[in-house]
What does this fold into?
Amino acid sequence: MADLRINLAGIQSPNPFWLASAPPTNSGYQVQRAFEAGWGGAVWKTLGDPILNVSSRFAAVSFNGQKVAGFNNIELITDRPLEINLKEIYETKKRFPNHAIIASLMVEPKQEKWHEIVKRVEDVGVDGLELNFGCPHGMAERGMGAASGQVPELVEKQTYWAKEMAKTPVIVKLTPNITDITVTAEAAVRGGADAISMINTINSLAGVDLNTWNTIPHVGGKGAHGGYCGPAVKPIALNMVGECARSPHINLPISGIGGISNWQDAAEFLLMGATGVQVCTAAMHHGFRIVEDMIDGLNNYLDEKGITSVMDIVGQSVPKYSDWGNLDLNYKVVAEINNDKCIHCNKCYIACEDTSHQAIDLYHDASGLSQLKIREEDCVGCNLCSIVCPEEGAITMKEVKNTLPSMTWNERQEMLKVLNTTAEPIGK
Amino acid sequence: MINSLLDKNFEEVTLGFSKASAMEEANRCLYCYDAPCMRACPTSINVPSFIKKIASGNLKGSAKVILEANPMGASCARVCPTEELCEGACVMQKDDKPIKIGALQRYATDWVKNQDIPLFNAGVPNGKRIAIIGSGPAGLSAARELCRMGYEVTIFEAEKKAGGLNQHGIVSFRLPQEVVDWEVEQVRRLGATILTGKRVGKDVTCDELLENFDRIIVAVGMSKVPNLNIEGEMLEGVLDAIEFVKTTKQETVPQNMIGKKVVVIGAGNTAIDAATCAIRLGAASVKILYRRTANEMTAYPFEYEFAKQEGVEFQWLTSPKKVVGNEDGQVMALECVQMKLVDCYDRKDALLEVENSNFTIATDFVIRAIGQKRQVDLIQEFNIQQSNGIPSVDPVTLQTSNSKVYACGDVIYGNGYGDATVVSAVQQGKDCAYAIHHSLKQSSEIA
Ligand SMILES: Cc1cc2nc3c(=O)[nH]c(=O)nc-3n(C[C@H](O)[C@H](O)[C@H](O)COP(=O)(O)OP(=O)(O)OC[C@H]3O[C@@H](n4cnc5c(N)ncnc54)[C@H](O)[C@@H]3O)c2cc1C
Ligand SMILES: Cc1cc2nc3c(=O)[nH]c(=O)nc-3n(C[C@H](O)[C@H](O)[C@H](O)COP(=O)(O)O)c2cc1C
Ligand code: SF4
Ligand code: SF4
Ligand code: SF4
It folds into this structure.
């Protein structure tokens, strides 16, 4: 039994699984049910000045019959009065003193507003604060959420104001609706943040109804862009976490969010530098009970690897994540087809022939069955054939032993520079 | 040569899921809340949970969920009548495509069996000794739970190998011995002593057990197939179906049915198992005779389908009258009579012989598969209350009229408890274990 406890910027939690600030954490009833189910922490549905919501609010994208590959919402922050939320936070914390309760906050970009709300939530005993600079719709039109999260100066200033008053750790939740997330992450660092969390939702429109021509979702025939989350956004979130984790200018603990549905997703975020993870869509799809397998699966994984504490895997993959310019140009893999396992769908052939490097020969044996053969000299090792292949083990990408030493693009450019400068005098 | 060919016929028919198929199937499961499949499983396995764990790649966790609820989860994955139980209750009945729960259960338990990872630990010894008579699924399941609660468990098993009908009765092409051996080994690993070749009533007396143990669990199953009570029954070639199936579970299978004609009498699952065994032993023709019709037979639909596919013929409304032998005392033929179902005597399906309809079927073997007798002698020796050889038990605790003696599994089948199935025996074994624990705790004999 591995030790699953985490310490994220001083916030302790019995395991790395938190519910993200969203409908699942809307009330004390829900958060207490979640803790009973095993969640280690919860970021309360964002608190701020009361808002009005619309109906309907959610839409999901199915992919080839799988429901909720992606999820889209136009919901705003909490629609319940602050006093009630504070009372329920207090009660919940009392019942679950060892679980992490984080208050998510969003107010107008004014110093006194931040001071006031920070004080009020800390008075009821939260373990930390999360500043919501990410909500991409509605609140942004009022200058809050993503609108302030996209402006580094505003991120820095508001973080600073929150920190002026805060006694508990401050996590800044970043919006992915920006070109380079490390820019706003660095702004959070300058503002004095204790940790960062990412990602909030990505601007999206789930679809258009082909019969009514309405947007999906729509509110009485009109739609507005929403925020995208769920399994589909995981690669985007994982990259953003990785970019922040490997930046020498950030050095803050990270709470990873975005498309995490099971323990494997969570472990990937941890390896890529997150100290803990937050989940919204998967819980909305299946209920709080999913955390049971998240805990059990992660625990079994750590046991199997002989790792005693989950904190020991945090960031282990970060040194392996770099810039393209640092990749070895002389490393080479080629595809290898195992015709014994092949089920002869010929998908690899047509993928390579039409859209990659025409490196697969297709011929038919005496019985008319297709046989496939890679021409290694033409194979660029792109992985495409193995990606489209439906049969496990039919295509493997194998490393080709190379006689050339490792050489990255950056090293190559360096070398060319040196060559050019040493060549110069002769040229002159 | 023939020898190894026949042996091959007794290898497991159904191949397990490949990884890709298991993932596909696991991801098809909706992960229902308050899932009907779970409620339909007699051992209440948390089906959505174990399937979700297959999908997430947590196979150890998946197997643990299964085996926690059902110590014989690997056997059950193969022999449970799933269409009557979990799969029959699955919400995905549209287009007849319920989740293949049994096959997924097999995938997870096979994984843990192949890895040989121990999943459970013995409890802290509490000093109490329990004797279990019979190492079938009921006895083993009780033993597993008792060991986990710290009891010193001794199982007495009359046969040379432990496992009960899972070991000797259910045909190996549906349930390989290797699976049963593994399950027995899991119980042994938790500290249970399994004494094979020890028949209670012969090698040990009931009184000895009553003296030396704090509680006794009678999990002896049922007994031999009863006689047909017709002329010629003692001829060479008249077999007891269960004894017959048992011979196919030896190192090498018998050779004496190759090219022979076989008639099986009865239409329950045992009849089907005997008939399909005969086919796989190389019999030239195998017929099942049943007094009634397909509608009344007790074999599961999937078993019936399987038998037909294997080439078993069914002859309905036929009852045996006399086994005819040759000078050497071997079976030559079976004389039968035609039956009819009539609407009379207050019943819709009273069974009557059709007058002058006798006919003979040439055959070399007649296999009786008309139910099982009861373990009357042992029940009498314990001097516990019974009716028709079935011990009377408390419906909740499964305690007999002797407060130290409990009974579970097939031995109590017939008085309204469960079905004569492996999964039901397993659940009763668990129930017995908890009831014993509860009673010893109540009487403060253990902390
Ligand atoms: C041919 C056949 C096919 C079957 N197919 C299926 C199937 O597909 N699915 C399904 O769910 N069920 C099936 N069953 C039923 C299933 O096998 C039984 O319901 C189940 O095994 C009952 O378990 P048990 O532990 O109560 O008894 P058993 O499995 O009968 O075990 C009883 C054990 O007690 C031992 N014993 C008996 N007397 C004594 C004594 N005096 N001292 C010591 N030991 C003793 C016996 O040797 C035996 O090992 C089948 C049964 C048969 C016969
Ligand atoms: C319906 C809905 C409402 C949300 N509301 C909030 C919110 O109030 N505050 C916030 O910080 N994030 C909010 N989020 C974003 C989530 O906290 C989370 O960052 C995002 O959903 C990505 O995680 P996921 O892929 O696990 O869903 C909301 C998401 C959804 C789906
Ligand atoms: S999930 Fe509940 S709140 Fe949402 S639409 Fe359905 S019934 Fe209404
Ligand atoms: S894609 Fe895979 S299975 Fe299909 S032909 Fe190619 S190697 Fe064979
Ligand atoms: S009822 Fe069917 S779909 Fe629902 S959880 Fe059970 S197996 Fe899965």
Observations:
- The mean pLDDT of chain B is 94.
